[in-house]
Amino acid sequence: MNATTLPDTLLRILADKEVEVRNRAATTPLDEIEKQAKDAGKPRDFTGALCNAVADGRIGLISEIKRASPSGGLIRDPFEPAAIASAYEAAGAACLSVLTDAPFFQGEPQHLIEARAACKLPVLRKDFMIDPWQVFETRAMGGDCILLIMAALSDAQARELEEVARSLDLSVLAEVHDEKELERALGLNTRLIGINNRDLRSLRTDLATAERLVPMVPADRIPVAESGLRNAADVRRMADVGARCILVGEHLLRQPDLTAAAREMVEA
């Protein structure tokens, strides 16, 4: 990772995240958060849930729960994580993704805790992971998978975070935006490779990104198309290039009938 090449928004997020993690770790030291993680029990199988959905002939939908985003502002109000999780589960979603970043997404750990308690789906903690402390915190709050944004991490950082996750039986979703990041992500052990259609600089989405990158993902990995999917036609477009797993958030959360909207994606 070269900080000079990162978009300003991501730089601000990472700078804030360093301060946040330092403060949280001062309140709950590493040895304590490690103990909480180990006491949290066995995680749900996030990767397995996606594989099962695809094996059953369905789309492996990771349905997202977030209050707001830098590009979209406030997305859903009132915001009820438990009710949203239940609606997604009823639609046949394979997994959940829950934002826990506060400054930019108005998220918090409690959102993940409430959502996971309301359903049987495995949950991705969607946040900016930069420190092993956060990986232990993820399991302690009940998360089943972590996100590694390759644009925000060096190869050494990504490997270290993945090793901690594997020690806790957590799944890992490695997110990429271009060919170089994809090559780096393939150096990790995780099978889950997220192809984010959102440009980090302009924040615009273009499904052509996944159309270009998904065919480069080896057969032993699982491509997950992220961002910019708004209807069944978009889902089929991603499936046509080999991405039968998708992550969808903002589009679903803006619909009055969450279950119907998510079901359209699952059955596309």
Automatic annotation (TrEMBL):
Transmembrane segments: none annotated. It comes from the Bacteria. Residues 12-265 form the Indole-3-glycerol phosphate synthase domain. Its EC number is 4.1.1.48. Gene3D superfamilies: Aldolase class I. CDD domains: IGPS. It catalyses: 1-(2-carboxyphenylamino)-1-deoxy-D-ribulose 5-phosphate + H(+) = (1S,2R)-1-C-(indol-3-yl)glycerol 3-phosphate + CO2 + H2O. Pathway: Amino-acid biosynthesis; L-tryptophan biosynthesis; L-tryptophan from chorismate: step 4/5. It holds the Pfam family IGPS. Keywords: Amino-acid biosynthesis, Aromatic amino acid biosynthesis, Decarboxylase, Lyase, Tryptophan biosynthesis. GO terms for molecular function: indole-3-glycerol-phosphate synthase activity. InterPro entries: Aldolase_TIM, Indole-3-glycerol_P_synth, Indole-3-glycerol_P_synth_dom, Indole-3-GlycerolPSynthase_CS, RibuloseP-bd_barrel. Belongs to the TrpC family. This is Indole-3-glycerol phosphate synthase. It comes from Teichococcus aerophilus.
